[in-house]
Design brief:
homodimer, Aspartate Aminotransferase, domain 1, Aspartate Aminotransferase, domain 2, 2 domains, 16 helices, 16% strand
């Protein structure tokens, strides 16, 4: 099957292992739903000004316990800007980041090329950054960026005490702390603390609205008022002070209202799935148990046969498993990222067990 | 009246001198209209990929006679990126710009701070840049940026022969030419040439969709395939490769379909308005006759009384004149920018004459 046929098959499915059913909605359906949901008197924003966007910024600032917040089109923009501001304030152009953070691997090194910042890579690529790792850094740092949970390693989170120790280490050295909270919403079940308390560890926090919350696009940077005021200047420099962002802001607000209370359920489902998958010796889950609603699922076997088996299951059952398998460090072992969303909640433990049994059987990984 | 009362009054008006009625629509109405207009099968884009966004890029590339095009959230992003690419290709970090171009006055010098470019200011702030001005430049240049029409001076356009001579001067020196075409759509009646021919003078062209076309937000950069491919990398660096932009793209496409053919009517109306205003000795129009659907209207008198008179007219007639007057270089002379749109077309010559007669009378500029 070519990509188009695969997309078509996916669109014919009615149930999905991963994410929200809404992730497969048409543009028309999403826009119509958003129009219905909007306050009928709401006027569009204008270059960041307007009731909706300003009110939403205040709402997120309050939720995170920060003085101020600014809505931006992307997290890429939020994070570069936060680090640039901290770098100038500290008079140091070095920032400590994990080797698999978004800035390092997904932004074509913009923090270096646009902002003249130098990344000091801390920790092993496949593990969380630790206090031990930091203690080995011998250079002055303007800021330390932590990602909670860390997506590229399956959504892992440091224990609260380790996290506090890391923050203390930075504070004692007057190193600013910035949180990549692209998936911060998903941390609550693990830490059993509210967002204000988690965010209070950091000087600036970025959060996203189009991942688990299901918004169209958009992000917020929150922090001290003076930092956020300066961030608005950098936002304009980046070309991110858009004339209008209400479709993004509305969908972000709607996502927050509808899904913020579901994080516990998503996490419980992830724990349940990990327990089911544990019964297959050919499958590993990382981290196990999952720290959030996300995990990496490693499967040993032949990639083409596994992918073909997943497509066959989709054709017959209208249940979509995953798009494609990614390589892992081990030969004949492949992985996919499983993010539990509304669609996942709809699948029972026996169904999930049966699906993976069929998958492994058909791919010839285990005998029937 | 405070700003809130002024906004309320504006929202109660039913007719407007400036722009489109749609500019005063609620978010709900715009989103619902967009949902209705969308192809029912259309799926959201994903990081710049998808039928709608890729098709629209191809459509704009073709309309402008360029090999390729990329949709970005803002023109600020498009233009910095185009200049950065030309600068690197030429190995020169200087770019020639007009002192009142957008990069120089509205972007907090991002082209310098983010991209390390140096602006060589060419021409007088209140006039179009000329071949004469350029011939006085004695430094090597990577690129020349021209804005057609030039917004900050009332939408002025150079004569076609002058424009060609400027481009020839640049080409002979292997200086790349970039068009700030934020309002390129409005140039057609003046040049009586199609967009392909106008754009053919330039190596790269930026166009906008939320001004005269009435879209929500968004811009396109068009040019050679290799430049546009590189621009996509810079777009990601800027944080502008958004996960989804379909509300912007849909509204841009809709605006193009609905309004591109109205440019002649808008321009004719601007000529008509300028002729009406000419009969008032207290009013000047710049440029006169208008080159496009835009003009600067200068009024001599007391600013507070003029603004109060405009609000009084709004209250009584439900016709909205302008938001506020801006200072001009002359004492007791104020200006506003008049962009002819769908709302303007609805006002007759006698109505416009009567409105300004009342305005001047009430402000005490002329006796009743």
């Amino acid at each position: 099957m070519n990509q188009k046929e695969i997309q078509k098959l996916a669109s014919q499915c009615t149930r999905f292992l991963i994410g929200h059913p809404k992730n497969r909605w048409t543009a028309q359906r999403i826009l119509a739903e958003l129009a219905d949901w909007a306050n009928p008197d709401l006027m569009p924003d204008m270059y960041g000004q307007g009731e909706l966007i300003e009110g939403f910024e205040a709402e997120i600032a309050s939720l995170l316990g920060k003085e101020a917040a600014v809505f931006m089109p992307s997290g890429t923009m939020c994070q570069q800007i936060a680090l640039r501001i901290w770098s100038e304030r500290k008079g140091i152009n070095r920032v400590a980041v994990h080797p698999k953070c978004h800035l390092e691997i997904h932004e074509h090194k913009a923090y270096q090329i646009l902002h003249g910042l130098h990344g000091v890579l801390v920790g092993s690529p496949d593990c969380l950054l630790t206090l031990d790792d930091l203690q080995r850094v011998k250079e002055p740092l303007a800021a330390l960026l932590l990602e909670l949970p860390q997506r590229e390693i399956g959504g892992q989170l440091p224990a609260w005490q380790e996290l506090k120790a890391i923050i203390d280490w930075a504070s004692q050295r007057k190193i600013a702390t910035h949180l990549d909270g692209a998936r911060l919403w998903e941390c609550k079940p693990f830490y059993q603390r509210d967002y204000t308390e988690i965010a209070s560890l950091f000087d600036t926090v970025y959060v996203s609205f189009y991942k688990i919350l299901g918004g169209i696009a958009g992000a917020v940077l929150a922090g001290p008022s003076d930092v956020i005021a300066e961030a608005r200047i950098w936002q304009r420099r980046h070309g991110g002070n858009l004339v209008r962002m209400y479709p993004f802001v509305l969908s972000a607000k709607k996502g927050l209202v509808e899904r913020l209370d579901r994080m516990h359920d998503y996490h419980q489902k992830a724990l349940e799935i990990a327990a089911v998958l544990e019964s297959f010796p050919q499958i590993d889950v990382v981290p196990n148990p999952p720290h959030t609603n996300m995990m990496h699922v490693y499967i040993r076997g032949n990639r083409e046969r596994l992918e073909a088996a997943a497509l066959g299951i989709a054709r017959e059952t209208k249940i979509w498993l995953f798009y494609s398998l990614m390589p892992s460090p081990m030969a004949n072992c492949w992985k996919f990222e499983w993010t539990v969303g509304d669609a996942t909640l709809d699948l029972t433990k026996p169904e999930i067990a049966a699906l993976f049994k069929t998958l492994l059987n058909r791919a010839g990984v285990v005998g029937t």
